[in-house]
Amino acid sequence: MKTTYIGEHLLPGQFGHFFAVLAFVASIVATVSYWVSVRTEDEVKSRSWKLQGRWAFIVQAASVFAVFGCLYYALYSHYFEYKYIWRNSSRDLPVSLLLSSFWSDQEGSFLLWSIWQSILGLVLIRTSKKWEAPAMTMLSFAQVCLGSMLIGIFILNYKVGSNPFMLLRHAPENQGLPWVNSPNYLNFIKDGNGLNLSLQNYWMVIHPPVLFLGFASTIVPFAYAFAGLWTREYKEWIKPALPWALFSAAVLGLGIMMGAAWAYESLTFGGYWAWDPVENASLVPWLTLVAGIHTLLAFKSSGHALKATFFFFFITFILILYSTFLTRSGVLGDTSVHSFTDLGMSGQLTFFLFAFIPAFGMLIARRKEIPAVHKEESTYSREFWLFIGSLILMIAAIQITFTTSIPVWNKLINNLGIKKLFNITHDIAPPSDGVFHYNKIQIWIAIVIGILTAIVQYLKYKDTPKGQFTRKLLIPTGLALVATVLSGWLGRVNYDAYGAGFLMAIYLMMFASYYAIIANVAYIWIGQKGKLKAAGASVAHIGFGMVLLGIVITSSKKETISIDRMKMLDGGFFGANSKENPRENLMLPRNFPVQMGDYHVTYAGDSMPAGESKTFYLVRYERKDATSGKTLEAFTLHPDAFLSNKGEQTLTPNPDSKHYWNKDIFTYITAVPLKEDDSDTATYQPHVVAQGDSIFFSNGYMVMEGLDPQPTSRNYTAEPNDLAVGATLKVYTKNNDQYNLKPIYLIRDSSYEYNIPDTVAPLSLYVRFSKILPKEKKVELEVKESTVFRDYIVMKAFIFPFINVLWIGVIVMVVGFIMSMFQRLRQNKERPAVKKPLTKETVV
Question: Which helix (H) or strand (E) holds 640?
Fold first, then answer.
């Protein structure tokens, strides 16, 4: 008997799944139609097939938008009968973060990618003219692959994709559970699982769309390059492809750095970049894309490096697909902080990757047909150094990719039997110090690229008079040297964690960064005569130099100010498997000022606002004049943290920062007390003392200095009829630290006796004033060393100097790319392509 389920909203899911399948089928029709259009020699039939492909793609795009609408409607309406909605959202989630939950999981992010490719395809249909059919063949095929990720149907007993509209009761993990057959099971589902706390940040509303637009846009240079190779029009494709490549580099670079900004604000690996595998997977295609742009520019002006341009545009999109495989197959589950879990689509992801690799086969097969200039380039030519710079970027990409792929190498070694064949006993281990592993190589690459960024624009294509070249660079070189010396001297750049050799590399990178900035600023006025419209490349290079400068300054001058000088967190506080250095974390008892660098820092309390699932901690910073004690500066930060209530006791913190023009103070919570176990076996022990007497405890002793007849305390507010007296105590510890205590004894309204204890929170030391013994001229104090201390936070704080140089550099670089893109679009409209006569230097 069929069960009728109460309260389910099936229509959005049915429509959504229908449109997902329709988009998949329509993209197949579009791919085949465009492919036949290119292959058909009859012009009328070719036009007919192209028109069919165009309409099929439009239907596909409309269907993708409909899928988006259905899924967002279900999210907005909190239809938790759908597994995707239940798994990634909750009722208390603000509307502003619903989009974050939309693309927080695999199906939603694939859909986002498909939406952007649909939009780009519609733009190509409108603008690509004669390149429409060959270019759209590749883009439509990419849509077939993406569409297959969302259909969730069985084809020849193989499940293709994952349906985002799967009902919760249909999920494989729920089969056999009693509630599945209950008609009113929705009555038991009061709320969704919720959005991952680290994703509840405004950057996650804007970062993924920008990043996925960058991912999607790399298909366009790939498609144009493939179209040129396929149709044997080896040179004509570069004119429409260059603005797209510049657009892709701008958007992908912006998306990557938005991810860095999100990591800076929401993750706690100590800054904006940690060479996490997911970070690396998005950076590498950007490096090869930039390399391809520079070889394309070299070919446009000199005829050199066309084969390299094909290669770089092909490898960029392949690396985008490889990064998708890495982050979504689950292979990085143990090495990355923000990769996806495996949804069982590893086979599809592998097919998606290998489906586009035949482009390299065509490149190899037709390599002899590709135009090439056989005359050797001059070492004083721009194209020579553009090519060298592109090769160096490729080397950077290879090194990053190789190390990032260690989990893949281990899997291949195990699955192919190589381990057994060569008697290998252990997997390849990732580097123990991952950051330094990358930095020690990439810093030298950055030095070379920075210097090339400075000098290449002063070179002319084909050849440059040596005297003219060196004369123009004299002033920028001198200024860069002066800036480097002053920065190192006044800024005290003496980073010695990895020895003198690495410190030398830091100074060289600083010089290369200044050189790139200063030389390109000078070139705008010398080479471009102040014409900013034509200076997009120089602006992008200035931004790149600022990014390098921001990286080298913040990395070499980053200062940890949360130093645990009292060694309170020694003895395994963070656990044996924790990567936290206890000496770089500071315990802050509530309302107890602790010295931290130039500041006194106080944990002033916490709050959990209505509708929030995380706790906000008030951390007050105060900087005083050492002589007068006058407060020079005071501010409050609000780092927050979520302590899982699902048994794992996992802390998920979000940092907070104080921003200055020249630095950031970056603060986050690393530990809070657990609330479940409040057992405290310690008891108060009485001590009868007179003025000058000492009381010993496990970490030191305290001296009774006297009585205060008008006591004041943060824990005591006097009332008119109070008779109060405070015991003034000085506490001395084994570490030579000193504290003041003032427990209070009072009689209120002539009859009620009270005592107000005082605490040395870092020592878990409690003292209360229990009696006055007038005959003996003594008092009774009770002392307890608590075994359970609950009112504290553990915090980590850094100073990032001049980090704004990095963020401003990103903006300037992206603006430079966009300026160059519009410049190329204007040139494409102004100058129709003119075929140049063949020369002795050219072989076609």
Answer: strand 640-643
